[in-house]
Structure formats: structure tokens, C-alpha cells
Specification:
The chain is an alpha/beta fold. Helices cover about 45% and strands about 15% of the residues. Strands 1, 2, 3, 6, 14, 15 and 16 form a 7-stranded mixed sheet that branches. A 4-stranded mixed sheet has the order 8-10-7-11. β4 (about 155-160) and β5 (about 160-165) form a beta hairpin.
């Protein structure tokens, strides 16, 4: 592996030496004073490329990574491999040691931001709007042909009719169903596998998940089936999308057309309200999101939804649980990996009624994203940063990242090697069941109105009938229309 990485680094050095830049990238500052002046004058302007093919020598670049990648040891392995490969150039990558949710727009101009940052596409592209990150010469990157255009488009922006790409995709994110096979009833193959496909019905459709959740709680009121915080817009909005809702019009490029209420999105809201009725009041806020790892591990929850990049955290928690029950470390880890399943979301009833028997089923759609790397417009070492990103998105490192963290690589070759969930996510992306978060700064206005609506929806499950806010589909439709209006006002009226 080391020889391959060193050989790759040498090839990269030659590649960087041949870079011609992207032609219409942004200009960098010569020093910190210039950087502050650049910020005060409206950030950087489109001009000659800073990616001129000359690797900066004897420099240190600060890299902001995902917290999970740091805690699980992947980031340490990445920077050690990179630093070894680029030692002859004196280029060293270090942990920026900053909160992963930094504010580059405010911190960057004064030298507090990282040189390279890892974030979701919607966050990175907010920085692109303010010209706080560089457009990148992506065609010069080794990963370019291995990443589908759909993923690249998450980082695409247009200026005067010219397309620029401001980030390099690392992994695809979308809500996934986590469940434990060892918590299934002993007779599940006869009671919960009506189609005989050897897959439990409750992980194939939400009607059976709802029925199973009620059944499990009735048998033991300390146990639950499916559990998830409903207030979380990222996870809950997919239920609206499944019935025709959307964020912005024109493929998420037109923020004047807000569509959380469009189509029959109210059916998705009804599904969420019914699911809340099979949970407890912790679904109203972020309590379930916070305790899902431990509650799934101790058997309180049968299933939950989360993203692929936290798979390793679920495994670690379950491994500890098995060790506490008497297994040795090796046996506990093997058993955890055998019993914890991560898969795509169950199908939904076309009617929205989770009590309907033999319903017509439709695919679940989800809000997804593409996490990736970007280069700060305030760095003094753009070519060294580009070299780091090229190394970090190499086939070897993407496979390693997938193995250690359970992520779904954006590289198709690495995803094929990883198999399983990665291939499932790619299929969902290709079929349009994953709706990528808009790469517009206006997306920041959707969260508060959405959270307010989903919180009220969850509360209704625990209110008396005469106190419910959303008693039927028309009232849910009206509630979603109000969400649309609030988002519109935040974007266009109140700014």
C-alpha cells in the first residue's frame, strides 16, 4: 500500500506540474493583509488561475475533516500517508483542530479558517456564493472520470454562463435504515415475511414497520420498533418528496419556487404523524437522534434512520454491548457486523395510510447530499491543497475510508469495491430516489420553518383529539403551504 501511495504521489507531482489551471478561477492574496483587503472588497474576483502547477515547498496546510473520520482514526491515517508521500517537497498536512461547522465566511478573512475543508455540498456552495472558496480544475484530478456527473453537479455553479466546480465529491450521503436482525422475532420468517423473499417485511415497507413497532411496544412497553426524531428536516423531508414535494423548483435551482407543500406532500406528513404515534415523546426533539446509538445497542430500539458515515459508530456501540454480555472483543465485533444491517428505506403506501392492508407501494425518496473537499480562497498554498485533495480522493484512500467509516464513496470504482450499501446508494441516486440538497445559499432558510412544522406534527401524536393542530390531510396541506411561505419570506422579503 505504501509503495502504491508513493508512486501515486510522484505521478501527482508530475500532474500538478502540468496543470494549466481552470482559466476562470479566483485570485489569491499575497499575504494576510491582502486577504483582509480582499474580503472587504467583496471577496475574490474571477481572473487568472491560482493553480499554476507550482507546488509550494516546505509548507503546512491545515485540513478541516469530519469529526467521525477523526475519532475513528481515518484522518490520522490519511495525513500520515500524505505527509510521507510528499515529504520530499516539505508539504505537511495537519488537523486544523477546528469545529467541523466553522464559519469560513467570517473566520477566513482573518486567518482563522483551514486551507482545505470537508463539508456537505450545501455548506460548501454557500461559501462559493460568497467567493470564500476556489473554483477547482477538476478535470486535472485523478478521480475526475471515476465520479459520476450527478455528484459533480452538487458542486457546480455558473457565472456569466460559465460552469465552475467548487468542491470534489468524497462520499454520497442519504438516510439509511439501520436495524438489528437479532431483535427480530424467532418466527419472523412465518409471521413477517409474507412474500417469502427471506427479507423481513417491516424493513421493506412502512406499513409493516408501523405494525411491527406497535406490536413490539405492546409486548414490552420499554421496547420500541422504529424510532427517529421527526423534527430533523433532513430526514423527515424525504417523506414529503415521496409524494411530490420538493425544496426548490427547476431541479433545486429556483428558490422562488418552494415546494414542500406541492403534489400530495401532505400524505408524507400524515405518514410521519402515524409513525410518531408508535414512538414516545422523545421523537419531538433531537433526543432520539442523540441516543439512537446506545438505544439500538441495548435493544430498546429495533430500527432507526441515519447516514452511512456513522455506521462505524453504531458498530462500536453494539460491540461494547456484546462485550458487556460476555463476548470477547473479536467475537463481539464479528457479531455486531453480522447483526447490524444498513439498507435503503422501506417503501410507502400510495395512500399514505399505514394501517391499510395490501397497499399499493411506492418508493421512498430521501433528501441526500454529497460530502466533499474544497479549497479556502484564503489559503497561501492552493497547489499544495489541490495535491492533498487529489491524494485524499485516490482509489486507495477512498476504499480505506469506506472500510473504516462505512461511507459510500463518490468514486464508482471504490464504491464497486466496497459493494453493499455503496452500490445501493448509487442505484438510488441514479433512479432519482435521492434528492440532493440544493447547492444554493438560500437552502439555509428551509431549516427553521421545517423544524417548526415537523415538531408540531410530532406533538400532535401525543395531544388529545381536540388539541391537535393537524387533524386531517387538508390541515397538513395548509401547514406545509405556510412553511413554503415562511421560507419565501425569509429569502425574499425579510433579508
Amino acid at each position: 500500500m505504501t509503495r502504491r501511495r508513493i508512486a501515486f504521489a510522484m505521478a501527482m507531482a508530475l500532474c500538478v506540474g502540468a496543470l494549466s489551471g481552470c482559466g476562470d478561477t479566483v485570485e489569491t492574496a499575497e499575504n494576510n493583509e491582502g486577504t483582509e483587503q480582499k474580503a472587504e472588497s467583496g471577496q475574490v474576483s474571477m481572473g487568472s488561475s491560482v493553480f499554476n502547477g507550482e507546488l509550494e515547498k516546505n509548507v503546512t496546510i491545515q485540513v478541516l475533516e469530519n469529526d467521525t473520520a477523526i475519532s475513528k482514526g481515518y484522518f490520522e491515517e490519511l495525513i500520515q500517508a500524505f505527509n510521507e508521500a510528499y515529504a520530499e517537497y516539505g508539504i505537511t498536512a495537519v488537523d486544523a483542530n477546528m469545529d467541523q461547522y466553522l464559519d469560513l465566511a467570517n473566520d477566513g478573512p482573518y486567518g482563522y479558517g483551514p486551507d482545505v475543508l470537508y463539508q456537505a455540498n450545501d455548506i460548501i456552495m454557500q461559501y462559493a456564493t460568497g467567493k470564500h472558496i476556489y473554483p477547482l480544475p477538476i478535470e486535472q484530478l485523478e478521480c475526475y472520470d471515476s465520479i459520476p456527473q450527478t455528484a459533480w453537479d452538487a458542486y457546480k455553479t455558473e457565472v456569466d454562463g460559465t460552469a465552475y466546480y467548487c468542491g470534489v465529491p468524497v462520499n454520497v450521503q442519504a438516510p439509511m435504515l439501520y436495524y438489528r436482525t437479532d431483535l427480530l422475532p424467532d418466527d419472523w420468517e412465518t409471521t413477517w415475511d409474507n412474500d417469502g423473499d427471506k427479507v423481513p417485511d417491516m424493513v421493506e415497507n412502512w406499513n409493516d414497520m408501523y405494525a411491527f413497532s406497535n406490536s413490539r411496544h405492546e409486548a414490552d412497553n420499554s421496547k420500541y420498533g422504529y424510532m427517529k426524531s421527526l423534527y430533523d428536516v433532513y430526514f423527515s423531508s424525504g417523506f414529503l418528496f415521496s409524494y411530490g414535494g420538493y425544496v426548490f423548483g427547476s431541479n433545486n435551482t429556483d428558490p422562488s419556487d418552494i415546494g414542500f407543500s406541492k403534489g400530495e406532500a401532505e400524505k408524507g406528513a400524515w405518514v410521519l404523524q402515524q409513525l410518531a404515534g408508535a414512538m414516545n415523546e422523545e421523537c419531538i426533539d433531537d433526543t432520539i437522534t442523540s441516543n439512537a446509538y446506545s438505544k439500538l445497542a441495548d435493544g430498546t430500539y429495533f430500527a432507526t434512520i441515519s447516514t452511512p458515515d456513522v455506521y462505524s459508530t453504531f458498530i462500536d456501540e453494539l460491540k461494547v454491548q456484546y462485550e458487556n454480555e460476555g463476548m470477547n472483543a473479536v467475537q463481539a465485533e464479528e457479531t455486531a457486523k453480522k447483526n447490524l444491517v444498513m439498507t435503503t428505506l422501506p417503501q410507502l403506501p400510495a395512500s399514505g395510510d399505514l394501517t391499510e392492508e395490501q397497499p399499493e407501494l411506492i418508493d421512498s425518496k430521501t433528501m441526500g447530499g454529497v460530502n466533499g473537499y474544497a479549497v479556502s480562497a484564503y489559503t497561501k498554498y492552493p497547489n499544495a491543497c489541490l495535491a492533498f485533495i487529489n491524494f485524499a480522493t485516490s482509489y486507495d484512500m477512498m476504499v480505506t475510508r469506506s472500510e473504516m467509516l462505512g461511507i459510500a464513496p463518490a468514486r464508482e470504482d471504490a464504491a464497486a469495491t466496497a459493494g453493499g450499501t455503496s452500490e445501493l446508494l448509487y442505484k438510488e441516486l441514479e433512479t432519482g430516489n435521492i434528492i440532493l440538497m440544493p447547492s444554493l445559499q438560500e437552502v439555509s432558510q428551509i431549516w427553521t420553518p421545517g423544524q417548526t412544522f415537523f415538531t408540531d406534527l410530532a406533538k400532535d401524536a401525543f395531544r388529545s383529539e381536540n388539541e391537535k393542530k393537524y387533524k386531517d390531510l387538508p390541515s397538513m396541506k395548509a401547514g406545509l403551504e405556510e412553511v413554503d411561505q415562511q421560507i419565501y419570506d425569509a429569502i425574499f422579503t425579510l433579508k
